[in-house]
Amino acid sequence: xxxxxxxxxxxxxxxxxxxxxxxxxxxxxxxxxxxxxxxxxxxxxxxxxxxxxxxxxxxxxxxxxxxxxxxxxxxxxxxxxxxxxxxxxxxxxxxxxxxxxxxxxxxxxxxxxxxxxxxxxxxxxxxxxxxxxxxxxxxxxxxxxxxxxxxxxxxxxxxxxxxxxxxxxxxxxxxxxxxxxxxxxxxxxxxxxxxxxxxxxxxxxxxxxxxxxxxxxxxxxxxxxxxxxxxxxxxxxxxxxxxxxxxxxxxxxxxxxxxxxx
Length: 262
Known about the structure:
About 15% of the residues lie in helices and about 30% in strands. With about 260 residues, it is α+β, with helices and mostly antiparallel strands. It has three domains: about 15-65, Roll (Structural Genomics Hypothetical 15.5 Kd Protein In mrcA-pckA Intergenic Region, Chain A); about 75-160 and about 245-255, 2-Layer Sandwich (Alpha-Beta Plaits), CATH 3.30.70; about 160-240, Alpha-L RNA-binding motif (Alpha-Beta Plaits). The strands form five sheets. Strands 6, 9, 10, 11, 14, 15, 16, 17 and 18 form a nine-stranded mixed β-sheet that branches. Strands 3-2-5 form a three-stranded antiparallel β-sheet. Strand 16 and strand 17 form a beta hairpin. The chain is elongated. Its EC number is 5.4.99.21.
């Protein structure tokens, strides 16, 4: 006769959740304890721990005397995206040939001269939404936000918000080409979105054009250049609305400052 084996109970996990310990120390509710931990106010043996599920036993747990729940506000991150990264794809959704720009957001790529004064927390990299598409081959400003107000602004007012893009093209650019773009082009009798273009600089082998356009129109600049026989060397978005990258290094990011408005 075959007897079924009794299931082996899982080994008990040592210690208790950090959130439970903090709730007893403060004292406060378990949810408030989790917020203190996620806010970077709790340390274990002198090291900040931001995971409420972290388990402790006899370690030294301390709560910063300046701890506050008022700083747990949603953040917006500004990334200087390199070429070859998909601005809108979430990590894991991009294909094997193109990586998600969001995976560039980490503590290691945070700009050292960020003037926002925001304390970097792990929770700032969660639940981010990419705003305002940018061509994969282009570099420049990409916005990721947790703030529903910023997301609504960049979505509902997209057609009214001006973007500034610097496009480097091969060779010199005839004045009549700039004039044609500024006067407006059409496809099958339908006018293309209005674009303002001016010559930014010119050199021996290439020229840089400044494009200003309202709304999100991926591929429009490339199409206009192709129509006029201009070969694009590179493309960089500098500004969305009133927010610009300034001197943000390629591949790095900073926080949107409190006074900045799109």
